[in-house]
Amino acid sequence: MRRLAILLPLLGCLSSCGDGSTDSSVTPSAMTVALYDSPSTQIWQGQCAACHGAAGEGKRALGAPALTQLSPDYLARQLRHFGNGVRGAHPDDDAGKRMALSAANLSEKNITALAALLTTELPPAQPAATVTGDASRGEDYYINICSACHGGNGQGNDALGAPALTGLNDWYLKSSYQSYLGGVRGTHPNDFYGAQMARLAPALARGDDIDDVIAFIASLPPHRAP
Fold first, then answer.
1. Helix or strand (DSSP H, E) at 117
2. Is residue 183 part of a domain?
3. Which of 40, 178, 194, 202 could bond to 186 as cystine, CB 3.0-4.6 Å?
4. Domains held by the chain: number
5. What are the backbone dihedrals phi and psi of residue 33, each rounded to the nearest 5 degrees, phi first?
6. Is residue 172 a contact partner of residue 78, using CB atoms and an 8 Å limit?
7. What is the DSSP letter of 143?
8. Which of 71, 23, 17, 75 is closest to 225 using CA atoms?
9. What are the tens digits of pLDDT across the range 177-222?
């Protein structure tokens, strides 16, 4: 199968999703990534890259996170949830609404291929820190509240439906947690794993607590889910 060598500027990509700016938390650089010329590549470039960044690095202004550290199982499940209304239906979930529209026309074959492309062909994201907190204090909270599902090193656990946390944009970790806390996410009756997070969210109800846990997660070595 033919490969396409594509120059992926991590800053300055024009986007049909907004003002064209990429995530300001990503270190400016450019790289050439060879992607197979396949239906999943065409979908990625045509429907996904404008919001998530050409290399999947995320764009904060659009609420679109980095994706390349997540497991194929987790990515596929979230795409299905957006496509069938489990995610993106809450009136306050603006970013989720955009995702729901993008995922609505994806077949199961498309979803599986996209998840594989993100985790095997795009470079691992390396988001810079934008949230500050006390990592040592956050470690205590993380070990006692988060590690049982997300792993001691934030590597995630597909068997428990828990995604990897390292390598995700810290602003996305914070906004996601606040969405669980505020009832924006995890309330749909078919979102089994999201409901678990929503029930646990009040354990870190203060902003400082959330920031401290995120600071600790940022201190962990990057881990790309298998």
1. helix 108-120
2. yes
3. 194
4. 1
5. -120, 130
6. no
7. I
8. 71
9. 999 999 999 999 999 999 999 999 999 988 899 999 999 999 998 8
Residue type, 90: H
What's the mean pLDDT in 113-139? 93
In angstroms, rounded to a whole number, what is the distance separating the alpha carbons of residues 161 and 165? 12
Considering 18-32, 112-126, 176-190, the range whose residues carry the highest mean pLDDT is 176-190
Round to whole Å and give the CA distance between 41 and 4. 10
What is the helix, strand, coil percentage profile of the chain, to 5?
50, 10, 40
* pLDDT-based confidence at residue 17 (cuts at 50, 70, 90): low
Here the CATH number for the domain that contains residue 144 is 1.10.760.10
Phi, psi of 30 (to 5 degrees): -140, 150
Q: What pLDDT was estimated at residue 28?
A: 37
Predicted TM-score (pTM) of this structure: 0.84
Tell whether 195 is covered by a domain: yes
C-alpha distance across the termini of the chain, in Å: 24
In a domain, 170, yes or no: yes
Q: How many Å apart are CA 130 and CA 101, to the nearest integer?
A: 29
Q: In what helix (H) or strand (E) does residue 111 lie, and over which residues does it extend?
A: helix 108-120
Contact, 165 vs 154, CB < 8 A? Answer: yes
Question: Which residue range forms the structural domain that includes residue 196?
Answer: 135-219
Give pLDDT tens digits for 86-104: 999 999 999 999 999 999 9
97 in any annotated domain: no
And the tokens for 60? 């904060």
Q: Which residue has the tokens 């990625």?
A: 44
